[in-house]
Amino acid sequence: MSWSPEKTTVNSWNEWDPLKHVIVGVADGCCIPPPEPALDAKVPEDSDMRGQWGPRPQETVDAANAQLDNFAKLLEDRGIRVDRPDPIDFSQAIATPDWETGSGFGCMPPRDVLLTVGSEMLEATMSYRCRWFEYLCYRPLLKEYYEADPKMRHEAAPKPRLTDADYRPDYLSDRIGVEKRLEWTADKFFVTTDEEPLFDAADTLRFGRDLVVQHGFTTNLKAIDWLQRHFPEHRVHAVNFPGDPYPIHIDATFTPLRPGLIMNNPDRRLPDDQRGLFEKNGWEIIEAARPAHNSPPPLCYSSVWLSMNVLVLDPKTVCVEASEVNQLEQLDKLGFEVVPVPFRDAYAFGGGLHCATADVYREGGCEDYFPHQPREI
Questions:
Q1: pTM above 0.90?
Q2: Which residues contact 57 (CB under 8 A, 6 or more apart)?
């Protein structure tokens, strides 16, 4: 399939084919949201964010935007078309007939909201009340793509009600403790129930005909079933990572780099009984390098493992946060051209380089990377 920067075409089947068109988020108006069930379970118990909410300090917004703008320019200098979302007023209160909350979140991480599968861009349900209206930031772009590309499909997953029935009250305590959290995640006992389909797009990795989806805090089993019904020509596989006390999004845990090679967080190993899909098809799963930092930046939801939240530009080229020297070195030794990107000031606004982007176009088609499917257990 040919591509030109003047013509909008939606096409992306995996995480590594040559990237030609992408959305990069912005930090404008981002807020620390008020307490709510899903959010409270996500914030680490020792985090400086507990008890705080409201607009983020403007100097931190400016610093994040400087790095996001630099990232966008770096991609453009490599011939990649970059679009940016239109922020809404995230500081305003949000309400539905079922609940209300004091503010929204932001639109730095488009990967959380938008899942591109082939010519379709799917808006995720979102499992946080504060992110209910976040899709509005991307609607102008999706409208533009839909009008320009007659094959583009703009879909939205069914909006959940997000009542208290969607969340387990067991997670409302401020002091559960890491040991108990690890016990619960090993038992696949998460803050979200299966009352209705809940998922964030960033819990899904695309491998051509196969979609690998993390079952955790933000994506439940009912959503994984919904994705299988919605993409009937795909094979959808649920995975989980017992070593993570806060299982939020798969892209700081399990990172495909090119066909046949995946990095796995060594503290959150894919369980042995879930490795069959990869082992039967000759994929190598390697342990990611340790992060260069011992703690996340101030007021950041994410863990230090944003070190492995990289953006693959093509099977030989990968963008890595510039200060993550261990990850830079590991990927260099694996034969990649490694592009260092300063991005730590943006971490607190929604994650790393993969989080801050959403694919519009990658060269290539829908391949079958897993012709040998394991027998279901």
A1: yes
A2: none
